[in-house]
Amino acid sequence: xxxxxxxxxxxxxxxxxxxxxxxxxxxxxIDHAAENNLSVQRAKFTTDLRKEDIASAKGSRLPGVSGSGxxxxxxxxxxxxxxGLVTRDNRSNNFGINTSVTIFNGFRIKNIYEQSKVAYxxxxxxxxxxxxxxxxxxxxxxxxxLFNKEKEADSIFKAIERDYLAAKEIAKQAKKQPTVLSGxxxxxxxxxxxxxxxxxQFLKDANVNYLWSxxxxxxxxxxxxxxxxxxxKDADLWLSPSYYGSFEQLEKTNALYTNFEAFKKRNIYSxxxxxxxxxGVLYYELGTARPDLVLKDLIKICHPELLExxxxxxxxxxx
Length: 319
Known about the structure:
By secondary structure, the chain is of the alpha/beta class. It has a domain at 168-319: 3-Layer(aba) Sandwich (Rossmann fold), CATH 3.40.50. The protein has eleven helices and ten strands. It has a five-stranded mixed sheet. Helix 1 packs antiparallel against helix 4 (108-146) and helix 2 (26-36) runs antiparallel to helix 4 (108-146). The longest helix is centred in the middle third of the chain and has 39 residues, at 108-146.
């Protein structure tokens, strides 16, 4: 049973290793997947961001207040005719307070607030659906194991592993490594994968030059726009720009995005526009179970000449 369950859990990660230290109950498998699955973690992060967007939209209705204060002190001596050397000391204090409030801006604040609420609700539904799909997949695989379908499960896993490794070998034939930017800004912070993340491993296996491949750590990198622009302004490709599905959305959210060459040349790709039968983002539903398809997508985007007859499964160029 221990070996059988390790085969089941292999479908829940994008690595090809087995966990054989203990026997797993069905509930433990479900709980472990819900807590550690990369897509679930990303969906939770997205939901938290959408919640922050609502708070930010509410706050934009409030008046803004700022204050300032300064103190100047000067001293010295000067020669005055008829008096000789005279000492002069001067001190001054300045204080100020400013306040501003938006009276009307064409319902922009109201619309942003409503949009933020809808986006938050949608992200919650995506998260719950993702957890439910993972639970159903685990239960189905668990039952398959119990009903002596270990060979079938093992065959499927080996086929995925074989296809992934074959795609990795194909990527090695590339004659050029395009430079790659990833992620997008939330408020004033740009979030993108660190160099030891699963996303960065995909890019490494796709034989591209991910500009932050040398970084390490847990979670995403959090950088300023200026730092990202300085390093990635001329990047050949921009992958996974958060949840944005079109160039218009990117530019409308922040016109600074138009400074990147990848934006100017329309070389931005995302998985957010590819949905399943029920309307959920397909990458979140299937991506971690099919790392071979994710890698092939990246190879097709970055080295199209290597997979001429392949059609990307998850990623699409932005509208």
